[in-house]
Specification:
Strand content: 15-25%
CATH architecture of the largest domain: Alpha-Beta Barrel
Helix content: 25-40%
Number of domains: 2
CATH class of the largest domain: Alpha Beta
Distance between the termini: 55 Å
Number of strands: 18
Shape: globular
CATH superfamily of the largest domain: Metal-dependent hydrolases
Number of helices: 16
């Protein structure tokens, strides 16, 4: 007779979950949205040792093979991967709530680049301590809503000193539980002092890149009618690639400018927005394995899918069909908040999931994969996060609700109960509620 195998030790066992979701095939990064690639384990369990997941399965299977002194009873609750937010403008000064009231009441609105320049003024004027404190508080909010990895761009400094200052702020936040991926966005829009000197500004961005590369993993360029042409962006991308940086692109948000094609030609990690991208350019992105990042918070906040007060149809009424085309073309499509003060002032990926269903008419399973494994793919992190698999980081959220669809169906309430980052409980909203009661 063979002796029974001794159970393995774990630091934490999560047991009895109504659902454990987001489990791809072991050792792989599932970066698509087919229903068959979405795993739901009922009466599920997860074992954690150190910062890693060491076992996933049914409660019966995991409790027979693992033991721990720390048991989390997740009965009646959903367990998911932590959200990955692949596009934010985390560090900035000021607010643009007044500008938004003009939009909703029908008063003349500012152009997008004018709003960015307003934030530029506010950001340049803010002391670095104020910027850092606000960004840290914002990370706390994102974490409390289930985000465990977040990309943070510069882009509101738009000169050498201030762009590097913003990247330094991001670097100073590395002690926060949320993992940060830093991106240099010197080529956001032209700052006002360079409106008549475009080439000089491109020179400035290229000249700043060697110092930016010491602080940022990626270089983002805005290829859009309010930003830069593909030829201008190429000068920046060439230098960034020479320095070993990855490329990200703000692409075709306000009009077709060749942003999606530029992203494909440079094998960018992601192209974001894509509101006016052509099917032909999207197909090139699919061939280049460039992730499409869509941002429903922007479409919602700017009322882009809502009829105007005078009854005119919205300019982007076609957008839900465009997202469907992305899937049809085989693109890996991800979701993000695009957190910023002007066009998407939300830190909640929960809200983004809820808007994606309502605006783009996507299924629950598509949406969850877009906010987890697909978003991790956009940041080059799918190898160690974005799904609940053995060997990946123990970045998990335990939810107040029993099924994954309920997080999307409900809105207006933070449904995250417990957030675990790298094996540590970093948010316990359930405990906070019980203390308040």
């Amino acid at each position: 007779m063979h002796a029974e195998k001794e159970p393995e030790d774990a630091d934490i066992l999560i047991v009895g979950a109504s659902e454990v979701i987001g489990c791809g095939p072991a050792g792989t990064a599932v970066a698509c949205t087919r229903a068959e690639d979405f795993c739901v384990i009922r009466d599920g369990a997860v074992a954690i040792r150190g910062d890693r997941i060491v076992a996933v399965g049914t409660t019966a299977a995991i409790t027979s093979s693992c033991r721990s002194r720390r048991i989390i009873d997740a009965a009646g609750k959903l367990v998911s991967p932590g959200f990955v937010d692949p596009h934010t403008h985390l560090v900035h000064g000021g607010s643009r709530h007044g500008e938004w009231e003009d939009l909703v009441t029908g008063r003349p609105k500012k152009a997008l680049d004018a709003g960015i320049r307003f934030t530029l003024q506010q950001t340049r004027a803010a002391p670095i301590e104020v910027l850092a404190a606000q960004a840290r508080a914002d990370l706390d909010t994102a974490l409390a809503h289930g985000t465990t990895t977040l990309e943070a761009k510069s882009g509101y400094g738009l000169d050498r000193e201030n762009e590097l200052r913003l990247l330094t702020v991001v670097d100073s936040l590395r002690s926060h539980p949320v993992d940060l991926v830093s991106t240099f966005l010197g080529a956001h829009v032209l700052p006002p002092e360079y409106v008549e000197r475009r080439d000089e500004y491109i020179d400035l961005v290229v000249g700043t890149l060697p110092e930016a590369a010491e602080l940022a993993e990626y270089c983002d360029v805005c290829v859009d009618p309010v930003g830069f042409s593909p030829a201008e962006a190429q000068r920046i991308a060439d230098k960034a690639l020479d320095l070993g940086m990855g490329i990200r692109v703000h692409a075709d948000q306000t009009g077709l400018a060749g942003g999606a094609r530029f992203a494909a030609d440079n094998r960018a990690a992601s192209a974001d927005h894509l509101d006016f991208a052509s099917p032909e350019d999207l197909a090139r992105m699919a061939e280049a394995s460039t992730v499409a990042v869509v941002v429903p918070g922007v479409n919602y906040h700017l009322l882009e899918l809502t009829p105007a007060l005078n009854g005119e149809l919205p300019a982007k009424a076609f957008f839900p069909g465009l997202v469907a085309t992305m899937f049809d073309l085989g693109l890996c499509v991800a979701l993000s908040t695009d957190y910023n003060p002007g066009t998407s002032p939300t830190l909640s990926m929960q809200t983004v999931l809820q808007l994606a269903a309502r605006l783009y008419r996507l299924s629950y399973r598509q949406i969850w994969q877009m906010a987890t494994i697909n978003a991790a793919t956009a940041l080059g992190r799918a190898h160690d996060r974005g799904s609940i698999e053995v060997g990946k980081l123990a970045d998990l959220v335990i939810w107040q609700v029993p099924e994954h669809g309920m997080v999307i169906n409900r809105f207006g309430t933070n449904l995250a109960d417990v957030v675990i980052k790298s094996g540590n409980i970093v948010v316990d909203n359930a405990r906070s509620r019980s203390h308040a009661g």
